[in-house]
Amino acid sequence: MNHSNPPSPKRFASAGPLTGQIAVPGDKSISHRSLMLGALAVGETRVTGLLEGEDVLATAAAMRAMGATIARENDGTWSIHGVGVGSLLQPNQALAMGNSGTSTRLLMGLVASHPISAMFTGDASLSGRPMGRVITPLSEMGASFEASQGGTLPLMLRGISPAVPITYRLPVASAQVKSAVLLAGLNTAGISTVIEPVPTRDHSERMLRGFGAKLEVGEEKGANGLERVIRIHGEADLQPQTITVPGDPSSAAFFTVAALLVPGSDLIIQNVGLNPTRAALFDVLRDMGGSIEELDRREVGGEPVADLRVQHSALTGIEVDPAVVPAMVDEFPILFVAASLAQGTTVTRGLEELRVKESDRLAAMASALILAGAKVEEYGDGLVIQGTGGDPLPGTADGTAIATHLDHRIAMSMAVAGLASENGVKIDDTAPIATSFPTFEALLDSASAQ
Ligand code: S3P
Quick one: which residues bind 3-phosphoshikimate (predicted)? Predict the structure, then answer.
């Protein structure tokens, strides 16, 4: 979690087709939530397939600091003994969130409706990200905050119990903000309501129900069409669960695009979560001409899952419908790489939120791809990319390294660009990859070697 070590630069270059079978690690969003809800259920929750990346380990450490007992068993199962809703303990040191916006914003929701206070700290990337979006609703519920200038970390949160139930309409399409309010609502008497003008990932809703919380999801007519309305009944009593975490579609995305771009590839990616609020990248890539076949569609841990067979394909540029943005918000960096090798132009819009992720992903990807030889124009809310028509990108010149800005998805996207380049692409630091996908490089080696 501490990236103060010297950076580890690396050049990623073509190493032949990606073939055989790989399994990507567990879903990051579901892993965070299983630790948080397990820590609030009295009794033992058992989790298999948990993502053991730095972001999720930051959540585990925070839940331990607030009273839960969390242990990894030798077979990789995680055992969580929770404290009960309303019984989180006062942490006796700052909660170190590392690079993880999800840990920070969701835990702020949990702390807000408990009679405890917590200091939240993060790395340089996280300390620049906006927290006002959760401070606003949680203040309405009664919590108080001392944030750094601009509403950022380090931040002191004083929770309150009883908190006040609110009705909150999300001003940005953000599952993190939605989840912060729902989690605060767990320990708030009465009904807390979140209105979502645009649907975002629904893992919190699914898992809260799975743990026995009373939660209603409906659709109501709003000013601009149908809106999702989510109501949680507070002072919930959560029951411990046995959870299997499906593979992360956001991690599978890098291997999907790599196999589409590298000639001769024919790769099976096992156990990929395909929750419709997450899976839009695969549809967009199919619309571009990508061969992505779903095998053995099934349900794992209440989520749709399939194995994906991906074969090298000629891609064509498209205009991406801004309506799908929330369902692939983390996948635009790797889509930009695919677009750089497609035939024709790809247009993306409605991506303002990408500017406040682990880095400004529009600026970071535009300059990274240009350095690697792609044709990219940057606009306020998206990129327009002129593809090579299947030819490899030139790659980065000797002595030039792509700046990854402490952003795992920039690092992995540009690693994939390196596989589809003539001279390879050098990135300035591979360390951020461990926040979400610690086995990325090993899996890349194994898929290329088969
Ligand atoms: C996440 C929600 C998304 C996403 C992040 C994980 C979650 O953030 O980018 O990687 O687990 O709720 P926003 O809600 O800010 O869009």
Answer: 28-29, 33, 174, 176, 330, 357
Distance 432 CA to ligand 1 centre (A): 17
Any known ligand binding at 178? no
Q: Which sign, positive or negative, has the C-alpha torsion 8, 10, 15, 18?
A: positive
Distance CA 30, CA 194 (A): 20
Relative to beta strand 375-379, strand 382-386 is antiparallel
Put simply, whether the predicted model's pTM sits higher than 0.90 gets the answer: yes
What superfamily does domain 29-244 belong to in CATH? Enolpyruvate transferase domain (3.65.10.10)
What's the CATH number of domain 10-26+246-449, 3.40.50.1220, 3.40.50.300, 1.20.1640.10, 3.65.10.10? 3.65.10.10
176 is in an annotated binding site: yes
Q: Which residue matches tokens 């419908």?
A: 321
What tens-digit pLDDT sequence spans the chain (450 residues)? 445 578 999 999 999 999 999 999 999 999 999 999 999 999 999 999 999 999 999 999 999 999 999 999 999 999 999 999 999 999 999 999 999 999 999 999 999 999 999 999 999 999 999 999 999 999 999 999 999 999 999 999 999 999 999 999 999 999 999 999 999 999 999 999 999 999 999 999 999 999 999 999 999 998 888 999 999 999 999 999 999 999 999 999 999 999 999 999 999 999 999 999 999 999 999 999 999 999 999 998 889 999 999 999 999 999 999 999 999 999 999 999 999 999 999 999 999 999 999 999 999 999 999 999 999 999 999 999 999 999 999 999 998 999 999 999 999 999 999 999 999 999 999 999 999 999 999 999 999 986
The DSSP string of 166-214 is: -EEE-SS--HHHHHHHHHHHHTSSSEEEEEESS----HHHHHHHHTT--
Ligand 1: distance of its center to the CA of 355 in Å? 13
Whether 237 is catalytic = no
Ligand 1, atom 16, residue with closest C-alpha: 174
List, by residue range, all CATH 3.65.10.10 domains of the chain.
Answer: 10-26+246-449, 29-244
Q: Which atom of ligand 1 lies nearest, measured to the CA of 28?
A: 11
- Ligand 1 midpoint to CA 352 (Å): 14
Angle between helix axes 175-186 and 132-140 (nearest 10 degrees) is 30
Beta bridge partners of 158: 117, 144
